[in-house]
Amino acid sequence: MRRLFFALPFLAIGVLYLFMDLRETPLIIVTLGWLTFALEYRYGGESKDGEELIALGISMSVVLMPIHQALAELLALFMFILELTVLFVKFKLKA
Predict the structure, then answer these.
(1) How far is residue 72 CA from its own chain's centroid?
(2) Which of these, 15, 27, 34, lies nearest to 83 by C-alpha position?
(3) Closest Cα to residue 80, out of 44, 48, 34?
(4) How many angstroms separate the CA atoms of 51 and 82, rounded?
(5) What is the pTM of this model?
(6) 10-residue stretch averages of pLDDT, the chain, 95 residues long
(7) Looking at residue 68, what is its pLDDT?
(8) What is the pLDDT of residue 95?
(9) Which of 22, 39, 59, 95 maximizes the CB count within 10 A of its CB?
(10) In angstroms, what CA-CA distances link 37 with 20, 21, 45, 93, 94?
């Protein structure tokens, strides 16, 4: 669980970036990052590798946001869809 917390400073930097540049694309990137973090924090946690992957994906999308917003948005969307897929499979196989 602790490895997931490496993404928190990057999410805070993303929120601060929104104060400078409040547009639709950075808002989507930061929102998807926070949603992915919340889903992994609440329902994930079995694998350290999975937490590292989610933390890396969140931080990379926030770091890429000022450089290339379309690529950052695709990465944030991919990480969110990946997390939803993992949770869907986890709860479907449990039932």
Answers:
(1) 11
(2) 34
(3) 34
(4) 12
(5) 0.92
(6) 89 96 95 95 83 93 94 96 92 82
(7) 95
(8) 67
(9) 59
(10) 23, 22, 11, 23, 22
Q: How far is CA 67 from the centre of its chain?
A: 18
Structure tokens at 45: 């946690």
Report the 10 Å Cβ neighbour count for 7.
27
Encoded tokens for 13:
């930097």
The first and second tokens of residue 37, run together, are 């973090």
Token pair recorded at residue 65: 């946001």
What separation in angstroms does the CA of 32 have from each of 27, 57, 92, 93, 94?
A: 8, 11, 23, 25, 26
What is the Rg, in whole angstroms, of the alpha carbon atoms belonging to the chain? 13
The whole-number pLDDT of residue 1 equals 64
φ and ψ at 12, to 5 degrees?
A: -65, -40
